[in-house]
Design goal:
The complex is a heterodimer of chains A (about 300) and B (about 400). Chain A is an alpha/beta fold. Chain A has 10 helices and 14 strands. In chain B, the strands form 4 sheets. In chain B, strands 5, 6, 7, 8, 9 and 10 form a 6-stranded antiparallel β-sheet that branches. A 4-stranded antiparallel β-sheet of chain B has the order 1-4-2-3. A 3-stranded parallel β-sheet of chain B has the order 12-14-15, with helices on both faces. Chain B is α+β, with helices and mostly antiparallel strands and about 400 residues long. The chains are: A alpha/beta (about 300), B alpha+beta (about 400).
Chain lengths: ~300, ~400
Amino acid sequence: MSILLNEDFTFIVQGITGREAVNLTRECLDFGSSIVGGVTPGRKGREVHGVPVFDTVEQAVEHHGKPIDGAVATVPPAFTKDAVFEAIENGIKLIVVVTERIPRRDVAEMVELADERGARIIGPNCLGLIAPGVAKMGGIGGPAKDAAKAYVAGSVGVMSRSGGMTTEISSTLTAAGLGVSTAVSIGGDAIIGSTYADLMPLFEEDPQTEAIVIYTEPGGRMEAELVEWREEAGSTMPIVAFMAGRFMDDEEMQGMSFGHAGTIVEGKEDSATEKIARLEAAGIPVVERIDHIPDRVKEALGK
Amino acid sequence: MRFYEYESRRLVERAGIPVTQYGFCKSADEAREAAERIGGPVVVKSQVLVGGRMKAGGVKFADTPAEAAAHALEILELEISNHMPVGVLVDPKAEVEHEYYAAVLWDGRARRPMMLFSDMGGIDIEQVAEEHPEHVGRGHLSNLHPIADFQAKETVARCGMTGSDLGKASRVLAALARLQRDYDMTLAEINPLAKLSDGSFVALDAHMEMEDEAVGRHKKVLTELGVDLSEPREMYEPSDFERNVKAIDAADHRGVIQGKDHGFTGNIGLVIGAGGGSLTLTDAVRNQGGKPANYAEIGGNPSVSKSCGLAKEILQKDGVEKIAVMMSIVSNTRVDIVARGVIKACLELGKDPGETIAIFRIPGAWEDEGYKILDKYGVEYADRSVSMWDAAGTAVAKIQGGGA
């Protein structure tokens, strides 16, 4: 099993005729995903790698004849909110928002509407998610043959604020024989649809997942939220964390931002040092090297 | 994007929040005129984007217009944390009865804007929140529903306010909340919000920051405020290196490159990517005793000339003899294109790529093609079986250990 995706999972690609979206569609189809339509206003009647293109999500749902499970939104920042609203209001329950540089208010509006309608957003500014051997939704892992190289089905769930590092970490887990149950690129912005704590209950329920690896960065309060969730839920699933951007704690780096939009440190609780202390205190080891992750996971699992 | 105090005041004023009869002045003469117009004692405040004005001598009191002019002359020449002021603000010295704090900012965890109000204004709000939590009222706002006045009232009442002050303060907070939403502010703060001796409430200082991603949709108001969008509002002056990399990036739409060297003084040139990979690699270099000369990010699928441009800029930095070209596993960026770009950079500078590139560690898309090219030029490379940490270690050993 995996979280969020399964063999029957269907999705559409919003903005499917864009250059990146065409590639993404090819990659996902090759990996075995079921893309049942694409939406680009004004392009109804075309096809992208055999996937029919529609003007509206409503038309895509009508054509499919039953509810569609997911949508990947790859439209320009100014139009993303509307596209996500459209997906939500047409009954889609899982929306991966790939687009970057979306103003926070727009993201917050999307997330609030999703909450009201019982839908879930992954991202924005993310590469999507992948369940090895099942499906992938988004550009994560790249072309199917590359994705298959880095992602082999296994026992570890991965959540990462960096899309590229999702693959680097998964590749390390795969090489160590642990493999990946589901890997989610959760996005690097200050406000995202699904945080570590939001996704943890799904991993907990997944019989395939035995441990979790998170990749994190300075900025935001997501680690504190994860620690609180773990305590409240009484969860004992092992988690190993990797923290990048420790150098940003240096005096001469104060007030600067590196990497993702969300790495802006807005309070002292957001710094790498604070976060490492918080995670370690909650029994979540924070490793200094990516290549040390598999051993820490094995240790936690008693393997 | 940060606003100067005088711009923040104009924004606050537009939102219907009372302010004092301040004047924004660019010369001593203008400051004198503003002080004459105000009549009575004034405060002359430096207009810089950084904090700590008071301590640096950027805020001075004057009893007469002549004194205000003299202070303005001095303050206009005063550099504060490497920033020259763009002018001074001349403000009447208000008869303050009490100082409050009002702000609206994002609560990332709740994914909603949060209103903050305190009856202990004028000082650091984080300190108040820590030492006197009962004096800080908080209230979250919906992103989808209209902002209701009662929500501001509740927030103000939570810090214990009542009487006619409650209504006056609530009106200010509600207006500030609408301003935060309408203009995509990441921070909209009035500190202090003052109650004057006549019982009225005015914003004595305001601090506004607009989200960079949203600047494009507020061009109209920014133009009205006189904001020059081409002028960088960084907290520090960009270096030549930073400016040059930015120009190379802007010249070609394919892929993204970024370079920073503020705070970096070492000799290890880093041609690295992507967002998370760059953070990880910079740590890996530093934690193994390496001193990076810069920070960089390669993202998307940049052209040969873009990768070449970034590598050249780094190689031309003082003290940089060699570069390390490293990324986490790529799926969009093409290994062969980056390889071509960095080799081209070496050749164009008359350097031997095999000597100059200490290590090339980019696994992923088109790696076989990339490794073929690197082989041809005798560049040491590593695939995914070599960890990011070990690749960074090789770079440190070859560049610093070798006495480059």
